[in-house]
Amino acid sequence: MNLDIMAFGAHPDDVEIGLGGTVIKHTANGYKCGIVDLTAGETGTNGTAKIRREEALRAAEIMGVEVRECLGLPDARLQVNEENLRAVIEIIRRYRPKVVVGSYHLDRHPDHLRASQLVREAAYLSGLWKYPAEDEAHRPSVVAQYFLGHVGEPTFVVDISKHYERKMGALCAHESQFGLPGDTQWDTLVNHPAFMSGLQSRDQYMGSKIQAAYGEGIYVQEIQPLEDLTSLKGRRRRKTPREQNERREP
Ligand SMILES: [Zn+2]
Fold first, then answer.
1. Phi, psi torsion values for 89, nearest 5 degrees
2. Domain harbouring 203, CATH code
3. Residue 72: left if φ>0, alpha if ψ -120 to 50, beta else—which one?
4. Model-level pTM?
5. Which of 55, 89, 204, 217 is the most exposed place for a label (fewest CB within 10 A)?
6. CA 150–ligand 1 middle distance (angstroms)
7. Residue 9 C-alpha to ligand 1 middle, in angstroms?
8. pLDDT at 246 over 70
9. Domain span at residue 223?
């Protein structure tokens, strides 16, 4: 299967947090999207690898993605080494995505940083014909990044307003992570109510940059070519008072 977009996360809920609305928007528009969780998130304070996989698959269904793979690399000990690069290269070669999205290259969490580097390096090496890995060489045309803990200046903002409820639904599927702490769950940073309200504020802030209710920032490190200046859509244009009047009159 050839995918249009393949999104990578170090942990099973990363893509939902930073790119969930964008993935949902693209699946709704008919694009084939896939998610690859590099680790099973087994070192997380709450949940187990098995529970988190079940939650990730429920979230995948809500987001409408074609596939959700878990590479099972070691959580909290993620390294950029030949063995892990090969695993990422082989998944890229198997699904041959046009666009690959990984986490931003700056973050407090070491796994997020290394996931970013792994994805960028693997996307390049995957295109080398003689690189010793399974399947035929394939290099995605774009490697983009989404924001997790550290938010940088985005290259683009995707309007996700119409898909926000589904983004929240996909996040809520990760009950072991975002469910309120109770008898069976420990208090963590992400199950404190401030986390979800902070994420919503951030999505609103990103949206405000393009006059949308909610948005997700995308960062692309390489300069993108542009053939046609008029293909830039710019911000939404307001109707002039005259146009608004015409609409009111029968
Ligand atoms: Zn994470």
1. -60, -45
2. 3.40.50.10320
3. left
4. 0.94
5. 204
6. 12
7. 7
8. yes
9. 5-248
